[in-house]
Amino acid sequence: MLRQIPRLIPILALILMPVLQGCAVNPVTGQRQFVLFTERQEIEMGRQADQDISASLGVYEDPELARWIDEMGQAMAAESERPDLPWTFRVLDDPTINAFALPGGYIYVTRGILAHLTSDAELAGIVGHEIGHVTARHGITRVSRAQLAQVGLGLGMILAPDLRPFGEAAGAGLQLLFLSNSRDAEREADDLGLGYMSAEDYDPRAVARVFEMLARASGAEDGDRIPGFLSTHPDPLDRRDRILARTTGDDPEFRGTRDDRDGFLQRLDGMIFGTNPREGFFRENVFFHPDMAFRLDYPRGWRTANTRDEVQGVSGEQDAVVLLGLVQEDSPSAARQRFLAGQGIETIGRSDQSVNGLPAASAEFRVQGENATFRGYVVFVRHQDRTFRMLGYATQASWNARQSALSQAVRSFQPVTDRAILDVQPRTIELVRTQNQMTLEGFHQRHPSPTVDLTTVGVINGFRSGDVIPAGTLMKRVVGEPLPGGE
Questions:
Q1: What confidence score (pLDDT) does residue 463 get?
Q2: The Cα angle at residue 473 between residues 468 and 474, in degrees rounded to 5
């Protein structure tokens, strides 16, 4: 979390280009398909959104793992109906169980989903599924329909809620993820993925284990940055049964033999598990950042999220927001001057009073959004040679009720000196090979994972309570200390 807030990549403008290409031929089915973009425009849309996604969520720093996954994806994509796309495969530094595709051949898996898989064939199934979305042009079809449905309604009504009038605070590429696929599209991607992985001799039956894992892990992940993998899709257990019907029996439709548990797991040894507290973490309503040694208090009961670019807090009624981020200016006063020069911002008052002993510059303002007027406070603070921006605003209608909480929140920024906070480290995956046959309970007792429960240990290893684990099985455990104040 917390890097300088970038200028938005103009992908929304690209989405709204008045291109009326009409129908095109689907590369998979050979049938006519409604799209408003040429393939070149599709690729450019994905390329620009990729910059936004990579900056907002972060790319996981493991070059060897990244290279291996890219080689897997490129091999399957080469056998697809669109081999000439500039295919790109990335591992995102995000703890949620997620995988997704952007138009033009950009495929992402998170370290969160990798930590829950147990073989290369399972990963191949996920990557193949996402390749299927691209080859069948599901993403660009969704964008085309969204554009057509919103003609004449204005840019802000298409992908971003009215509560976000400050363009620099939102990732436009990220908004593409919230256009969900239809159930038919998901089934088509399932079938395409089975074909792509089978062509590379991966065992397609492993995909059934993925859906089993997703069903077990549903609703159990920390973090709320992007929609969970397949969260809006058909029921995972129904899809598991459908996969098994097509990949088992005397004459299965899809077949393959590669299903390497040990080789895959060895690539995960030492991977961060769950949220990385070095990038900031919440304890109830208080946000701490160990690397930058500060804290900020958000209003109690608000929904909060920590991303690479900012820390967000939203009231339960969604009528007020507090955002924390970094800006480029070297002084709080210069940052305030630039903010207040923004289009449509009316200055109500200013102050140069310090905040908890730190140099600061603040202002109260009013701004007219597309469908509502907003009132707010902005505070810029200098700390550790960085300028931080705390922005709190609410609708004019809710200002009297929110004013006090917003004022307290944006002025709560203060340094942290507690070593328990400053020295916190992330949890990691450690591999253990069982010496003897044992149950999952026996494994958890002999090789404990202090910060996760037995169910989670079972999910990430593909075993259930009471299952017998053969001797010589490579298993994951989660090591590390709980966060200060509890996990």
A1: 97
A2: 130
